[in-house]
Design brief:
The complex is a heterodimer of chains A (86) and B (111).
Chain A (H helix, E strand, L loop, with lengths): L5 E5 L4 H12 L5 E4 L5 H13 L8 E4 L2 E4 L3 H8 L4
Parallel strand pairs in A: 1-2
Antiparallel strand pairs in A: 1-3, 3-4
Chain B lengths: L2 H16 L4 E3 L3 H18 L13 H4 L11 H7 L7 E3 L14 H5 L1
Antiparallel strand pairs in B: 1-2
Helix pairs in contact in B: 1-2
The chains are: A alpha+beta (86), B mainly alpha (111).
Amino acid sequence: MAEKKITVYALSTCPWCRKAKQFFKDRNIAFDVLDFDMCDKQKQQEALAVMKQHGGGDSFPFVIIGSDAVEGFDPERYCQLLGIKP
Amino acid sequence: MNVKARKEALRYFFGKVVDPMGYKFSPDEELVDFSLEQEVLLEQKYGVPYCPCKRITASRSENMKIVCPCIPFNREHFDAMKRCWCGLFVHKDVTDPSKLKQFPAAALKKG
C-alpha cells in the first residue's frame, strides 16, 4: 500500500511531530525522520530548501509523502495520500 | 527558577494574556504540560519561550512573531482552526480539542 517515500520533518519540542511519527509507526509504514532542531546548520539548510520547495519551512510537522507535502498533523490527509483507510 | 516553577509561572501569565483574546488553555492537559515544558526549555536556551512547533530563524523580527502566545500575529489563521498552531490554546468554546484540525495558513487563501 504505502509505496511512496515518506519523510517527516520534525522538531524535538513539537507534540504534533510526535503524533505524526506515531501515526506511521502504528501502521507499520516505513518513513524517514529529520529532527530539524537536532541537525547541524548544513543539514538544516538542506532540509529547509526541500521544505520551501514544497511550500513550507516555518511550521512543523511537515510531512512529504511521495511528491505531496502536508504541513501539520493531518491523519486524514496522510491516509488519503497513501490510499489507506483512516 | 526550576522548570516546574517556570512552567507554573508561564501558565499563570499566559492564561491572563490569552483570556482577553478569546482563548484558553487546551483541555488536553497532557499536551499543555508537554508544550509548556518545551517552552521553558526553549526559554532557557534562547531566552524566549518560542512556540515549540515553529522554526526559529536567524531574524529577530521574524522570531518575535513566534513568541508564545503568538495569537496576535496569526489571528485569522488561528481563529479559523479554533486553536493556535501548537494547540496550547484553543477558543474558549472548545470542549474537545481532538476534533480540531491543524492546517496551514495557506489553506485559508485556497478556501
